[in-house]
Amino acid sequence: MKKILFLSIFISIFACSSGGGDGETVPAKKDPIVAKLVFPNANSECTEGTNKTPTQSNIKFEWIPGEGSEYFGLIVKNLDSGVSTTYSTTKSFYELQLTRGVAYSWYVISSSASSTVKATSETWKFYNAAEGSSSYAPFPAEAVSPKMNESVKENSIILDWTATDIDNDIASYEVYLGTTNPPLLFKANVVESVLNTVPVESGKKYYWKVLTKDLAGNVSVSDVYSFNVN
Predict the structure, then answer these.
(1) How far is 12 from 216, CA to CA, in rounded Å?
(2) How far, in Å, are 161, 170, 215 from residue 173 at the CA level?
(3) Buried-most residue among 4, 7, 29, 92 (CB within 10 A)?
(4) What is the rounded distance in angstroms from the CA atom of residue 110 to the CA atom of residue 73?
């Protein structure tokens, strides 16, 4: 009887100390949450740079990290040249020297060592203020529909885009569309940011872009977007 009682106590102690019981707590895996952008502000003229020269200034990018985020990739695109550059950091800010009088876009990708998920923030655009500048070109237009590499089934589609301007003086658009890249001019002097009843053919891939003009004569050109007609 004593042997049986001793064995029962031993098994109980072993089970409690082995760490494999139901009471063991396993840390929950957390995917990173999207960061909230703070500065430079969206669709703004950034005048707060430091170490200014006639051509350059330092801009401090700032964001609020989302829960579960450990690492950040800051992606900054020169909207004049179309070149994007990624900067890696573990902090919630990053300072860069940028050319003045140029439009940029930026966003942040958040990640964590404990997750394969990456969280991508909104994309904001801004101008790095030029010395003595009183007028800026519109920001390059962005496709709303069809989006990049989207597949459509209709033989008549809607081309829809969005464009913004610090001076709020967009005058008109030129729309380029075709089955070659770069596409050819399809329609000029468009006053709304949409074209309805655009004819397309099944089985073809189309390319399109938008040139935006303002009242001061400034222009900007969007990226080239593409879509497939099934």
Answers:
(1) 84
(2) 10, 8, 12
(3) 92
(4) 7
